[in-house]
Amino acid sequence: MANTCNICDKGAISGNNISHSTRHTKRTWNPNIKKVKAIVNGTPKRISVCTRCLR
What is the residue-wise DSSP string for 1-55? Predict the structure, then answer.
């Protein structure tokens, strides 16, 4: 799945943009995902990690 953290499973959430005239349009909030090299089971792999888990 795109836009998901491999560590904490954080993904995109959906909601609404609300304008001044209170019209609602759909939108999504995506997590800040970075591709990093990490050692998984003794082998280096590229995994998708959110910046919160990267700290």
Answer: -TT--TTT----EEEEEE-TT--EEEEEE---EEEEEEEETTEEEEEEEEHHHH-
